[in-house]
Amino acid sequence: MEETKNNQSQPEEAPEAAVQEAKPAHRATAKADLGKRFVAILIDGILAGLIGLIPVIGGLVGAAYMLLRDGFDFDFMRKRSLGKKLMKLRPVLVDGGEVDLTVSVKRNVIFAVPLVLMIIPVLGWVLAPIVSLAVGIIEVVLVLSDEEGRRWGDKFAGTRVIEVDE
After folding, report:
1. What is the pLDDT of residues 106-129, one digit of tens each?
2. Residue 110 in contact with residue 151, Cβ under 8 Å?
3. CA distance 13 to 26
4. Which residue has the higher pLDDT, 14 or 54?
5. Domain residues for 126?
6. DSSP state of 30
7. Beta-carbon count within 10 A of 48 CB
8. What is the count of structural domains for the chain?
9. Is residue 25 part of a domain?
10. What is the pTM of this model?
11. Is residue 138 part of a domain?
12. Is residue 83 part of a domain?
């Protein structure tokens, strides 16, 4: 009877294992288009910046979105930001696994800093765009100079961004 159970469980596991093995191999070759990545971060940044204009709470909510945006498991987002969803991009772990909220915070912490500055009236509103520009330049240089297109946040979190069909 044990042989029957073992034989029955193996066919169920084999196709699933094959699918899991196929995904990382496919994802490892699919480098995301830099133009699409730029548009995605622009969409996310504009959204977070507009939220950040709401006095006091807006900066916190905008920063929270920038931190957690790639880990939300809502049906309409599916573990990626709204910008990435619109541009058909997805952040994944280097081994092809899914990004969760903790990994999202690691890869995006650098983008939340300028939004937190917006909590400070006047001075924060002046500093936030300057810091945001500096962060953007540094990240662009890293994406352009890395063979896989991985920026600082990707390296820190062990992720990369890929193109998807959905």
Report:
1. 999 887 777 778 778 888 889 988
2. no
3. 20
4. 54
5. 31-163
6. -
7. 27
8. 1
9. no
10. 0.70
11. yes
12. yes
- Which two tokens mark 64? 């929270």
DSSP state letters, 77-134: TSSS-HHHHHHTEEEEETTSPBP-HHHHHHHHHHHHHHHHHTTSTTHHHHHHHHHHHH
Structure tokens at 65: 């979105």
The size of the chain, in residues, is 166
Which class for 107: exposed (0-12), middle (13-18), buried (19 or more C-beta within 10 A)? Answer: buried
DSSP 31: P
For the chain, what is the mean pLDDT? Answer: 81
Model pLDDT for residues 58-95, shown as the tens digit of each residue: 878 888 888 999 998 888 888 899 999 999 999 999 99
Task: Look at the block and give the residue holding tokens 């520009």.
Answer: 133
- Single out the residue of 87, 51, 83, 88 nearest to residue 70, CA to CA: 83
- Spatial CB neighbours of 35, under 8 Å, sequence gap ≥ 6: none
- 23, part of any domain: no
Please answer whether residues 115 and 59 qualify as being in contact, where contact means their C-beta atoms are separated by less than 8 angstroms: yes
